[in-house]
Amino acid sequence: MRWDNLSEPPTGDSALFGTDAVVTRTFDTPEFRGITFHEVRARSIVNRVPGASRMPFEWTVNPYRGCTHACVYCFARKTHSYLDLDTGLGFDSQIVVKTNAPELLRKQLSSPHWQGAHIAMGTNVDCYQRAEGRYELMPGIIAALRDHANPFSILTKGTLILRDLDLLLQAARVTDVGISVSVGFTDRELWRTVEPGTPAPERRLDVVRTLTDHGIGCGVLMAPVIPFLGDHPDQLRATVRAIAASGATSVTPLVLHLRPGAREWFTQWLDRHHPHLVRRYERLYAEGAYAPKWYQRRITRQVHELADEFGIGPARRGASRRVTPPSAQPHPQPSEPGPTQLTLL
Ligand code: SF4
């Protein structure tokens, strides 16, 4: 594998990311073509959630910013603007990598001030995106959490998590480990266009199956349910049926929301692929980032009824080891996103 040092001025990038040094690289392989990695040495890695009292978790670790999974609707796009980076293609292709995340986490967990609170991962961008295959930060992070018996949860769309199965099992022996996989729909056409960089939904459900088979209960965050494209009763039924067949211990639906950053990018995509829906979206999201409550309630009710019908829940296998991660609980909806705003996958 070849590293190509690009000629980004280190001083400019340092100011941009607020760190001491930035090394910018590309990899000359098909899977990373067109992707630029900005390697930084972060000053801290455990972040306190703004407005934590209203959130289901208080502390997060995010080793990456930007995400090559490139979901058009991604709620985290706005956070790239805090780095003066583009929230569209830039979010998909300019990836910030906190290369010292494992050592920094180990150090912070050793601090006498740290009380061993739950740490949520995958709350901003996917920690098992493709870059993780190259940088391998998560094994060190999980090992640190295991060694400190510190409870944690991971939310992901990445099948790469199975690489770390042994570590997850080791951690689950000494602390609470909650895993959730995000699968909003199983429609392949929709997947190819709206989540172009992600593993296929059925591959993600294979992850659920494998984790559950190994005794780590795994929930599914059914997110996002995309209005008019992924919300037909037949689509909901097919998705919940597939989730049930994977052995998921829970399913939590979440309707698409379109905050600034994501909204513009999604609307452009909608205009290209489904122009006849643009007006309907304008009406549905006329009040802001969220679909109306009546619509959200309808989807939630439908999914819960289907979950009952297909038997997803505590009676299923793996339930005795089930840990429902905070990141799988209903999404908090703060009104003013900040730089460290949680986005959830
Ligand atoms: S929704 Fe999640 S997986 Fe998709 S681009 Fe955003 S962070 Fe990555």
TrEMBL record:
* Region Disordered, annotated ranges: 310-345
Q: Where is the composition biased (Pro residues)?
A: 327-337
Q: Residue limits of the Radical SAM core domain?
A: 53-302
Offer an example of a GO molecular function term for this protein: catalytic activity
Q: Which Pfam families match?
A: Radical_SAM
Which keywords does this Swiss-Prot/TrEMBL entry list? Iron, Iron-sulfur, Metal-binding
Q: NCBIfam families given for it?
A: rSAM_Rv2578c
UniProt protein name: Radical SAM protein
Q: Which organism is it from?
A: Streptomyces lavendofoliae
